[in-house]
Amino acid sequence: MEMDQPTIQQKARHFTRAWGWVKALPGESKAKAIKVAKSTQKLGEDDPRRVIHSLKVGLALTLVSLLYYSRPLYDGFGVAGMWAVITVIVMFEFTLGGTLSKGLNRGFATLLAGALGLGAQHLASLFGRKGQPVVLGILVFLLAAASTFTRFFPRIKARYDYGVVIFILTFSLVSVSGYRVEELLVLAHQRLSTVLIGGATCIVISMFICPVWAGEDLHKLIASNIEELAKYLEGFGGEYFQPVEDGRNVKVSNTDKSFLQGYKNVLNSKSIEESMANFARWEPRHGRFGFRHPWKQYLKVGALSRQCAYQIEALNGYINSDNQARLEFRCKIQEPCTKMSTECGKALKSLASAIKTMTVPSSPNVHVENSKTAVNDFKIALKTVSLEQDQDILAIIPAATVASILIEIVKCVERISESVHELSNLAHFKSEEPTVSPDKSQFLRRGSIKPVLEGDTDHFIITIHGKSADSRESENPQAPKLGQRLDV
Amino acid sequence: MEMDQPTIQQKARHFTRAWGWVKALPGESKAKAIKVAKSTQKLGEDDPRRVIHSLKVGLALTLVSLLYYSRPLYDGFGVAGMWAVITVIVMFEFTLGGTLSKGLNRGFATLLAGALGLGAQHLASLFGRKGQPVVLGILVFLLAAASTFTRFFPRIKARYDYGVVIFILTFSLVSVSGYRVEELLVLAHQRLSTVLIGGATCIVISMFICPVWAGEDLHKLIASNIEELAKYLEGFGGEYFQPVEDGRNVKVSNTDKSFLQGYKNVLNSKSIEESMANFARWEPRHGRFGFRHPWKQYLKVGALSRQCAYQIEALNGYINSDNQARLEFRCKIQEPCTKMSTECGKALKSLASAIKTMTVPSSPNVHVENSKTAVNDFKIALKTVSLEQDQDILAIIPAATVASILIEIVKCVERISESVHELSNLAHFKSEEPTVSPDKSQFLRRGSIKPVLEGDTDHFIITIHGKSADSRESENPQAPKLGQRLDV
Where are the transmembrane segments (chains A, B) (predicted)? Predict the structure, then answer.
């Protein structure tokens, strides 16, 4: 359409637009500067270790640069000193594990490739002046192609990618350098010593000034992810079963709903968890994390948490759907559903805090059992749904779906609980003193009777495992309410 | 327990174990070698471009090395030529976009940092011999710390991370080198020319020998992800509503169930999609991908596909659950549910093929409409569920949940369809000739009447949009069956 209009008008419009843009420039750039400043501040406040890391890199680099600067290197390009600077820049990672992983990769790859390069040079020299470049060319080609291909193996990519790059680099440089072995040894000594200086500077600064441990970060991340799920589930009941008026939901609360969003980060946490676990393997013993800490188990817990997050994502679709179930049915299932969700949330919360404090998780079992009881209560509640409303199956479907997904979440939480218990075994979490006296604890062995730890008084919850809700009801007909408690 | 046993027995056991290990070594290493060979072969067969990429890197490196080797560099460490080798190794990425991104980052960062470094050196020289190292140290510290901090900005991390590293590197090297400006210019010239040689070699080989385009890969990935979802949904109906005998499902088919697993890759595709979109931005016009191809829209389609995959993950929990719904109810909903699922699958399949062939998607709308019709059919079908079975609400919940999740998937597919249409607009997909004659197409404008394109004869599906199933039934009481077709 615009093509048909006169060009002069177009030009004028362009000019006006450009002028407007120029006029707006100072204001805009000011706004932009403020925005950048704010996001910078936020980045730093979110994790002050970022600021410290930046200062650490600056410090390492300044130290190494001045070493380089102060040495009498004016009689050349100062190659050797340069390598110290380069080493610091490429090696210094945010976490100590990352720094060590890069450093060790660099070290081993350089040594191996250096030796191979010397061998290649020696081999090539046997073919005379004319044959030498050809043989060297073939060797470099073969080794570079083969090494590059190994980078496609997922395991090598994850752990040794940097090492392979340095391997190709060093091999090419050494084999092609054309130096004789004696000269090379001097150079290698020079280069190795400066690389060592650079590497040691990185490691020392990284390790002794506010170290950032990848393992600890992974540990905290797994715990906080579980906590995000817990927050959602604890809040879900209140959010879904809001007070209803005139058949429509009344949004009474304008409070912070951020707890409904936190789980979304868990959905995409796979790659970051894997890279952290990978770095964590290189880290030395620190704090309560031993040398053979079961980092793989963290990945398992993480995978199960993601599984739970997927279910929550499905659940979340129903939280504000217009297609709300009929009031009566909702009232019937409100109590057991809220209980399922809340108990799952509590179970996850205590699992998260068990991970955080590295204690053997105990109380979560109670909440898992409670949530299972709630599942049974839900089944019983359904029996009492009055019969004349059979026309309304359609109306109860969304609420029924919510309940059904919650039942899946209960299963999921049980699996998370098992995997966290396994983790606590493998990682030798410290066990807390049991809060029940020995004579009571023999009851606990029977599996179905669990102490309630959160109360002040001693309670036991008796869950009678029955395949169907029927059997349960007949065994315990006088107690159709939730979480039957038997004061001891 | 083991600690209590005699140590001699322990030692003997250790020895036996070690000996067994030694004996098994040749066999094991042979098995391992075969395993590695097989996985190597698989890697190459899965994507032959990996082999080609490795050969390309080998070629580039050989060319640059020989250039370096053949030049008379024996009178020094051959620093300049070395930079060509280093450039090739760090710059050569699998995709052209990756290579270009690194090359441009490297180029701009080097120039900028070089200029700043010279300035810093000049500034420092004003402070005399004693002040110079102090001033230089402070400058390097400040710049390195500030630059390192910028790497925490997600946008900079995604696009310019390598540039920032090279910036710090070059600035430190230049500012600390201690050369006078005239000398530096000579060196800069030398270094820049060799870096250019290395970079140009990479780009030429990367671009002209079997180029791998990140953009094309992203395009194909998005299409194939949608296809995986389609496969699942097309197969779901048959899998869930298997023939039932004696109240238990009979697993008649031992056929390939891989279609049930494909969607799992979609769950974690976020990071790879983002990095590809990031590389794609740097790529020049190629094939049907213009310079301003809407890569962001691909990310939107990808996000919606993931959303759908999360729903499928929730659905997948029910596919083999023991808790199967009562037969009669299942029979009632089988037809509409299978239809919902199949039509969603077909819609996604045609969307995927529209993306692949870069044509404006047309027929998907029909399938989306069909799936919506199936949702209505489902609602009608529920009305006819007989009333005496009201005790069994519990038994129908799993099947009802499946239906409810399928309804969510229908909504999700509709959103995917919309975003693919938007993509086809933004990316100027070519439009196919309409298969309906003009006089019929005016019907189509009314929105609710859509042509069925898959058949040979001309059909129209009339979907009467009504808020509730009731209104629909009263408007069209004689046609309670699925997909009312009106032969024209």
Answer: 76-96, 108-128, 134-153, 160-180, 192-214
